Automatic annotation (TrEMBL):
GO terms for cellular component: membrane. The keyword Transport does not apply. It is found in: Membrane. Keywords: Membrane, Transmembrane, Transmembrane helix. It comes from Agromyces aureus. The chain crosses the membrane at residues 48-68, 75-92, 98-118. This is DoxX family protein. It is a multi-pass membrane protein.
């Protein structure tokens, strides 16, 4: 079970690391071209979402891997689930498909619960 949990955590971390890096380093005007929902966010909000996703990805891996404050790993997963819940609400408000955000949010929730019960 531990191997499956690490694989799921690693995959989730890779997705959020990539998304967070793109959102935090790319100017919002360029993001709007590919991610229409970014027009509803200010420059600071778009950057903050990217930074939160990036830090969440690090929080998924580093605490459990180093053994330093390993309880932060499920906290990071739950924080990412909340971030995706807000993203899902934004997509629903804009009448866009919310499936990717919803799936990532549920995946983050499952990973967090996995660390609570099996980690």
């Amino acid at each position: 079970m531990t191997i499956a949990l690490w694989i799921a955590t690693g995959l989730l971390a890779l997705v959020f690391l990539a998304a967070g890096t793109v959102k935090s380093l790319t100017p919002r005007e360029k993001l709007v071209e590919k991610m229409g929902y970014m027009e509803d966010l200010s420059d600071g909000q778009a950057r903050a979402v990217g930074i939160l996703e990036f830090l969440g990805a690090l929080g998924l891996i580093l605490p459990a891997a180093t053994g330093i404050l390993p309880w932060l790993t499920p906290v990071a997963a739950f924080a990412l689930a909340i971030t995706m819940a807000v993203g899902t609400a934004l997509h629903i408000k804009r009448r866009e498909t919310a499936v990717p955000s919803l799936v990532l949010g549920v995946f983050a929730l499952v990973v967090g619960l996995g660390w609570v019960f099996f980690g």
